[in-house]
Amino acid sequence: MLYFQLVIMAGTVLLAYYFECTDTFQVHIQGFFCQDGDLMKPYPGTEEESFITPLVLYCVLAATPTAIIFIGEISMYFIKSTRESLIAQEKTILTGECCYLNPLLRRIIRFTGVFAFGLFATDIFVNAGQVVTGHLTPYFLTVCKPNYTSADCQAHHQFINNGNICTGDLEVIEKARRSFPSKHAALSIYSALYATMYITSTIKTKSSRLAKPVLCLGTLCTAFLTGL
């Protein structure tokens, strides 16, 4: 059973890699109208030039739930009443004589593993949605720099579906065709929901009646603001 789960995890990571780092899956070429004002907004610059770079955002999204899991599991393990119930519960789970792990380590690996799988799966679904829809960003025509002369664009209402009309930077144009669904919003919401579900279902001490709702609400609000 463990090997089967490892195969699924490896396949998920590999598929996410192909979506992120290769051009195996070509984005759908969506057409547009000549001189469409909704697609001529100013280009905001590359993601690396933004206030929070994608690398920093993804590190925070991965590290925050992981840190919550570590702190929560270690705290509960060192609380006597909680530790005794956890040890009794974990002993009912068979992992094989050669693969027995400490209950604390086993729970940390389990929760972080499920979180990592969901994070990669969310990334796959978001990339698949962007590839299938090819939804254009509001600044698409600004970076596309279409050659209207070769397209014989005589009127604003004329629809163009020729992907070769663009004369701008190909890499920037490729990203401008992948605006929906938003990867930042999807990954932020997933991380917040997982952290919230973990806090709600796992931490059950009486002293956390007010702390849990405040922590969960703060996590969800932060994810919501990140996705805007």
TrEMBL record:
UniProt keyword Zinc-finger, yes or no: no
Residue stretches making up the Phosphatidic acid phosphatase type 2/haloperoxidase domain: 115-227
Keyword Aminoacyl-tRNA synthetase: no
Principal location: membrane
TM helices/strands, residue ranges: 55-79
Role of this protein: May play a role in neurite outgrowth and neurogenesis.
Family: Belongs to the PA-phosphatase related phosphoesterase family.
Protein name as it appears in the record: Phospholipid phosphatase-related protein type 1
